[in-house]
């Protein structure tokens, strides 16, 4: 198909306006698509149902804070979340004088979702990611950049955990 043909098709779709959007929504609904954050989506099934282990340290606190921001606090919920958070730093850019100018933080969270009543394992998974920061500024700027990178990493990993849990929500027992 030539590029001019594609533009003509897009212009034709533009005339459909809201009715085209409605038709597209019907097509998605017909194939079983439901929004994860919709009223009957998987996120609503897990909201306020998962009690994570208490954090041990700032990095785990940031991880659980983001997790609870996305899924709520599950103090009385039927599920328990155990996790192991590991992080390491890697020198990425080094000058000829052996001075590091960029650091990557690599993180991994292994987690287990359990039924609180039976202690049965419902899901076992892991997520990983990385962030980086520059070390070329002043000492205080480098420390602030490092703290920011650690926070971004915790948020990234928590969001990945939530995504994995949402994918598994329809398979959970309750």
Could you write a compact summary of the structure shown?
This protein is of the alpha+beta class. 44% of the residues lie in helices and 28% in strands.
Walk me through the structure.
The protein has 174 residues and is an alpha+beta fold. The chain folds into 2 domains: 1-33; 37-171, Double Stranded RNA Binding Domain (2-Layer Sandwich), CATH 3.30.160.150. 44% of the residues lie in helices and 28% in strands. It contains 4 helices and 4 strands. The chain has helices at 3-30, 42-46, 58-71, 139-168; strands spanning 50-52, 79-94, 100-115, 121-134. A hairpin with a 5-residue loop joins strand 2 (79-94) and strand 3. The longest helix has 30 residues, at 139-168. It is elongated and about 55 Å long.
SSE blueprint and pairings:
Blueprint: H1 3-30, H2 42-46, E1 50-52, H3 58-71, E2 79-94, E3 100-115, E4 121-134, H4 139-168
Parallel strand pairs: 1-2
Antiparallel strand pairs: 2-3, 3-4
Helix pairs in contact: 3-4
Mean pLDDT: 84
> What is the makeup of the main sheet?
4 strands, mixed
Question: What is the string of helix and strand elements?
Answer: HHEHEEEH
Query: What structural class results from the helix and strand content?
Result: alpha+beta
| Measured distance between first and last alpha carbons | 49 Å
How many DSSP helices? 4
Annotated CATH topology of the largest domain: Double Stranded RNA Binding Domain
How much beta, percentage-wise?
Answer: 25-35%
The strand line-up of the biggest sheet is: 1-2-3-4
Principal-axis shape:
elongated
The tally of beta strands, per DSSP, is 4
Report the radius of gyration as a whole number of Å.
Answer: 22 Å
**CATH level-four homologous superfamily name of the largest domain:** Lipoprotein like domain
Give the uncertain stretches in residue-range form: none
Helix fraction, binned, reads: 40-55%
């Amino acid at each position: 198909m030539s590029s001019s043909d594609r533009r003509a098709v897009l212009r034709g779709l533009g005339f459909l306006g809201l009715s085209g959007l409605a038709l597209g929504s019907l097509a998605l609904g017909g194939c079983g698509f439901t929004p994860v954050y919709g009223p009957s989506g998987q996120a609503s099934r897990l909201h306020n149902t998962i009690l994570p282990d208490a954090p041990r340290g700032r990095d785990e606190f940031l991880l659980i804070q983001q997790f609870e921001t996305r899924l709520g606090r599950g103090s009385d919920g039927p599920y328990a979340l155990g996790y192991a958070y590991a992080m390491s730093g890697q020198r990425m850019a080094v000058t000829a004088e052996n001075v590091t100018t960029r650091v990557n933080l690599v993180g991994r969270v292994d987690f287990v979702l359990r039924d609180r009543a039976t202690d049965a394992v419902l899901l076992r998974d892991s997520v990983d990611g990385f962030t980086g920061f520059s070390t070329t500024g002043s000492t205080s700027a480098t420390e602030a950049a490092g703290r920011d990178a650690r926070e971004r990493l915790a948020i990234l990993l928590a969001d990945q955990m939530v995504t994995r849990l949402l994918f598994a929500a329809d398979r959970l027992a309750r």
